[in-house]
Design goal:
Blueprint (H helix, E strand, L loop, with lengths): L7 E3 L15 E7 L10 H8 L4 E5 L7 E3 L5 E3 L2 H4 L6 H28 L7 E11 L1 H12 L5 E5 L17 E5 L5 H5 L4 H17 L3 E6 L19 H20 L16 E3 L10
Parallel strand pairs: 2-3, 2-6, 6-7, 7-8, 8-9
Antiparallel strand pairs: 1-3, 4-5, 9-10
Helix pairs in contact: 1-7, 3-4
Length: about 290
């Protein structure tokens, strides 16, 4: 699968736009957005990651997103078939998931090329320290990509679409940090969505909990599904601001431990904030 470089968005490691010198390169996060969400609608989280000296590469999903703006200023709207996609059409969703995984893998290959020979970017990336982060559909894709691609060292899942993940028998040792919305158990999800999908979601979450042997599962108090994006902010709903802050803090603590080959204490994320609560396979607080 080819990748158009115009679909890469590389965030500078300094707020001023100039890249600060760093001999060994910067750790990299590949970011996959949620379905229908433009990749730049995560700057609340991304800007905090960039300020911690990570290079964040956001991967657009043209046709899927409600809109996509390319670097040359051209605009692409969402494809009609995407707008009409039924939540129960698992076949089509699985195809989208597969495409997202391919995009992550292809972008990883592009970064290797840029790091070797690009005039401006050569040596910028520390490709021994690559993580993937994704929200919703993008979260499910990052999990699948991390399990398949050994170049990826860690995965951070932001309320991922667990009902779409593959449920193979082989366990995985890829380090995973899960941050879910507060409504993370079946009874809570079923109150606001289709019960069949909620049931399938919990089944996928349960499978991930038992098949990932190096994973940390949490929910964020007060977070809704879209809280990990900037969308609430555009409606003057600022509950997402602390969610973005704790997401960046938990993610960087997790990634630094993985990259430095340190064991992450089971309660490491919850030490950052009382709003981050460890959960079990059913999405309930772990101590209940």
């Amino acid at each position: 699968m080819g990748v158009d470089l115009d679909n890469l968005n590389i965030a500078s490691v300094t707020t001023g736009g100039a890249l600060a010198p760093k001999t060994e390169g910067y750790p990299v996060i590949l970011f996959s957005p949620g379905f229908g969400v433009e990749r730049d609608m995560y700057l609340g989280v991304i800007s905090k990651l960039v300020s911690k000296d990570y290079v964040v590469v956001t991967i657009s999903a043209p046709q899927e997103s409600v809109f996509t703006v390319f670097p040359d200023g051209s605009y692409l709207g969402q494809a009609p078939e995407m707008a009409e996609l039924a939540s129960s059409d698992y076949t089509s969703w699985s195809r989208l998931l597969h495409n997202r995984v391919q995009s992550i893998t292809a972008v990883m290959a592009v970064l290797q090329t840029l790091n070797r020979s690009d005039t401006e970017l050569a040596g910028l990336f520390d490709l021994d320290k690559v993580a993937v982060m994704g929200h919703s559909l993008g979260g499910a894709a990052t999990l699948e990509a991390a399990k398949q691609d050994q170049r990826i060292k860690a995965a951070v899942l932001l309320d991922p679409s667990f009902h779409l993940i593959r449920r193979e028998d082989e366990p995985s040792s890829v380090p995973v940090l899960l941050l879910r919305q507060e409504a993370s158990a079946f009874r809570e999800m079923a109150a606001s969505m289709n019960e069949t999908i909620a049931s399938d979601y919990i089944a996928g979450q349960r499978h991930a909990f038992h098949s990932l042997n190096n994973a940390y599962f949490y929910r964020v108090k007060g977070a809704q599904h879209m809280s990990f994006s900037d969308i609430p902010l555009h409606y003057s709903d600022y509950h997402a601001v602390p969610v973005h802050a704790v997401t960046a803090e938990a993610a960087t603590a997790f990634m630094e431990a993985v990259f430095d080959k340190r064991d992450l204490p089971p309660n490491a994320a919850s030490q950052l904030s009382e709003t981050v609560i460890s959960i079990n396979s059913e999405g309930d607080p772990a101590d209940t």
